[in-house]
Amino acid sequence: MDASLEFLREIAALPGPSGMEQPVAQRVAQGFGEFSDDVWIDSHASVYARIGSGKPRVVICAHLDEIALMVSAIDKRGFLRLQNIGGVDPRILPGMEVMVHGKTAMPGVIGATPPHLQTAGEQNKAIKREDLCVDIGYPAAKVNELVSVGDIVTFRAPLLELDGGRIAGKTMDDRACVAIEHAAMKLLSRMKLDCEVIFVATCQEEIGSKGALMVGQSLGADIAIALDVCHAPQPGADDLDVSPFEKPALLRAPVVHAKLFERAKKVADANGIPYSVEISAGTSSTDADELQFARGGMPAMLISLPLRYMHTSVETFDQACFFHCARWLAHLIADFDAGWEAWLCY
């Protein structure tokens, strides 16, 4: 497996819900350090890596936080009740393996009332989070020794290589794009660079792009590129709501700077990189939205990796598309030079 995909395997396995990203941030910093001598982690666990010098200053953001759960109560039998961190769909939870991060990390399973014990009509009702619990196997007294209200619960799912060049696992949204940053840095280490680039793995995107807001206010960048995932074709999805699985998606939207959009298309065409265009009539619901508003307005754009089964433990992407994203990002950055204002400004 390619080094950037091995890096993804490692960071995907580490816990890092929104606001509690420190464990994964440390490993991301090590990975970024392979290609940069200027790496740091800020007070909220966003990771930064600087390469190159000059103008423009370009910031690249992909978020490292993940959706997760939090212990909201421990009932008298020792079962853990749950609250969401980010957008967790309760329908995916029954039967899931998890890790409970109490005094130590403990495996657990999420259970629900089996069909045999349900009352008439319950089988046809949607499962609510309030009806679910985590069982870590201990009696109630021991559970209360090891677990506290507020402890986090993360999905437990190893990275899985499927046939056909596809990869599935938890936290591909958006650690696959953090790994794309890693792959792009590797490519840029062999390319001529005429600008300053700061790669960032941002915190707290899943609760409203809080990390990107901090980044936009602190770095004083000239151009921002966000990397995130979009929806690939999958059962039950309308064709108008998804992007081709094998091609990176370039967003066309009011929050995307029109000149950056055209520049990205030009670079992709010149380098034989396949892509599709996704559209939004408003915002992107990614870090790009907050970056656009930084310091009175920053030209921003979004490149997306199409993903199946988003916000589950089996988020799936295409390996070839992963590398298309990295190559597109590297060539786009290498295309920025001292004449950037001439083509970017209206």
What does this molecule look like?
The chain is globular. A hairpin with a 5-residue loop joins strand 1 (38-41) and strand 2 (47-52). It is built from 9 helices and 17 strands. The protein has 2 domains: 3-66 and 170-344, Zn peptidases (Aminopeptidase); 78-155, Elongation Factor Tu (Ef-tu), domain 3, CATH 2.40.30.40. Helix 1 packs antiparallel against helix 2 (22-32), helix 1 (3-13) packs antiparallel against helix 4 and helix 4 (172-188) packs across helix 8. The chain is α+β, with helices and mostly antiparallel strands. The protein has an 8-stranded mixed beta sheet, with helices on both faces. A 6-stranded antiparallel beta sheet has the order 5-4-9-6-7-8. The protein has helices spanning 3-13, 22-32, 140-146, 172-188, 210-219, 258-270, 287-292, 319-334, 340-344, and strands spanning 38-41, 47-52, 57-63, 68-74, 80-85, 97-101, 105-111, 133-135, 152-155, 160-162, 166-169, 196-202, 223-231, 249-252, 276-279, 300-307, 315-318. The model has no long low-confidence stretch (mean pLDDT 94). 28% of the residues lie in helices and 27% in strands.
Keywords:
2 domains; globular; Elongation Factor Tu (Ef-tu), domain 3; 9 helices; alpha+beta; eight-stranded mixed β-sheet; Aminopeptidase
